[in-house]
Design a protein that fits this description.
alpha+beta; five-stranded antiparallel sheet; 149 residues; 20% strand
């Protein structure tokens, strides 16, 4: 199914909180490279600093990103992800001096409901490196953040 078909009927609203997951092309572990990870994190922070989104929590794994984000409006979720992927891919391409895709097309999103425990979702997101066996303590993993910590 083309990724455009996945967007049919979807609505994104200012103030809505989403858990986003997106992966690198062919699940390449690009973010094992410290500088590639820092470039990508800078683009996440840039969208937050520009007040496009409110980043609540995120973790950048070697081959994918989990991001708990609140839309600040009027830009929809698909556009936010497109801007993030485009900016980060451009900067990564300059750093790696290569062409080609960085991110898989599309992304997975889950809109949180009022009754969802946002902090519980944030803890789940930032604990990904522990569950993956990358570190024994979350403080030992460099590429995560949560607004409550």
């Amino acid at each position: 199914m083309p990724s455009d078909d996945l967007l049919k009927g979807r609505v994104s609203r200012a103030g809505q909180i989403y858990h986003i997951t997106t992966t690198t092309e062919d699940r390449r572990p690009l973010f094992r490279d410290f500088q590639c990870a820092r470039i990508t994190v800078a683009e996440l922070r840039r969208l937050h600093e520009q007040n496009v989104v409110n980043s609540l929590a995120w973790v950048l794994m070697p081959d994918h990103l989990h991001w708990l984000v609140q839309l600040n409006g009027p830009i929809g979720l698909a556009t936010v992800i497109k801007v993030f992927k485009g900016r980060s891919a451009r900067q990564l391409g300059l750093h790696m001096e290569t062409g080609g895709a960085v991110w898989q097309p599309g992304f997975h999103d889950h809109a949180l409901r009022r009754e969802d425990d946002i902090r519980k979702v944030a803890r789940y997101i930032v604990a990904n490196p522990l569950r993956a066996g990358l570190v024994e303590r979350i403080g030992d993993y460099p590429f995560w953040d949560a607004k409550w910590i």
